[in-house]
Specification:
single chain, mainly alpha, DNA polymerase, domain 1, 3-stranded antiparallel β-sheet, two-stranded parallel sheet, 14 helices, 7 strands, extended, Integrase-like_cat_sf, DNA_brk_join_enz
């Protein structure tokens, strides 16, 4: 059996997330099968793999699109997984993909979109691998999309850090607006043009998150809008109703109770959520938990100048003795 024959057979034995399987199939099609397909599986060695990665690197550099260390390591990970499956079946005696040395893939460090970094991007087109918005930039974005039908989802992602698939996979039965919590128990993934409901990305991704007042307000508004859409659409509206889910699961209640909230989600999580929201809402000029704009308080320096101006303008109407008792600041 050749490596190519095994790589053709191997995907049929796979189980797991659709996106992971699709990524592995892409690595097989673009790299592993073309470079290793004719090699006898039992004779595959570290030297074969070193030659393959060297050739891949040369060809990509020649095209002006060099592969990153992270991509190279992902290709190796796909091959290692395939060869581990062959090892379990006794088709090979060892896994050369586990012994080859490759450049270490360093995770890019996130940077903030400072004013200077924004100007550099606008001037050169260069952008960091990972960059995050400031509170003011986040507030500006939320202001710009406040009338968008999916505003609540963007608000939730911006303030509570949900992944895109987690946000669109969130159901009303996973949210308790009364106690300000949400349970991340599933995500929606897109694969070959089709949507699929999948478990969260990792075990740690299944979690309970605290919702600040502004997020609760946004979700309540979205629910009102959603009910209007349901009423207008009539029978054509597609939704998974809470009662249907309750019947399927056999639970009398599938939202978190107050006792569960107390034991699972400490009060500190709610305080942290409120502090995050307040930071962004302050930059936005909105009172947290409401849609009201807040009146900006003048700085101490401006207040002092205002008092001095008022004092000078009213000096002629004040009794001379009081004027002598209050010398003007210089």
């Amino acid at each position: 059996m050749t490596v190519g024959e095994w790589l053709t057979h191997w995907p049929a034995t796979r189980t797991g997330a659709a996106t992971t399987i699709s990524g592995h199939a892409g690595h097989v099609r673009l790299y592993l099968a073309p470079y290793l397909g004719t090699v006898v599986l039992a004779e595959l060695s570290v030297a074969h793999l070193q030659a393959m990665f060297a050739r891949i690197a040369r060809e990509h550099r020649a095209r002006g699109v060099p592969l990153t260390a992270a991509t190279v390591n992902r290709i190796r990970a796909t091959l290692r997984t395939a060869l581990n499956a062959a090892l379990r079946r006794g088709l090979i005696s060892g896994n050369p993909a586990a012994r080859i040395e490759l450049p270490t893939a360093r995770r890019p460090r996130a940077v903030v979109w400072t004013a200077e970094r924004v100007r550099h991007w606008q001037r050169t087109g260069e952008r960091p691998a990972v960059a995050v918005w400031t509170a003011a930039q986040t507030a500006e974005f939320l202001d710009a999309i406040k009338d968008h039908p999916l505003y609540a989802a963007y608000h939730l992602i911006a303030l509570r850090g949900l992944r895109r698939g987690e946000a669109v996979g969130l159901r009303w039965c996973d949210v308790d607006l009364e106690h300000g919590v949400a349970v991340i128990s599933q995500q929606i993934q897109q694969h070959q043009g089709l949507l699929a409901v999948c478990p969260p990305k990792t075990a740690g991704s299944a979690r309970v998150i605290a919702l600040d007042r502004t997020t609760v307000t946004a979700l309540r508004a979205h629910r009102v809008s959603q009910r209007k859409e349901r009423k207008q659409a009539g029978e054509g509206y597609q939704d998974s109703e809470l009662k249907v889910v309750q019947d399927m699961l056999g639970h009398s209640s599938i939202v978190l109770t107050a006792d569960t909230c107390t034991s699972v989600l400490p009060e500190v999580a709610h305080r942290a959520a409120e502090m995050t929201a307040a930071h962004v809402m302050k930059a936005r000029g909105v009172v947290p938990g409401t849609n009201r704009t807040c009146r900006r308080t003048p700085s101490r320096k401006k207040r002092r100048r205002s008092m001095e101006t008022a004092s000078r303008s009213s000096a002629s109407t004040v009794h001379p003795a009081r004027q002598l008792g209050r010398p003007q600041r210089r």
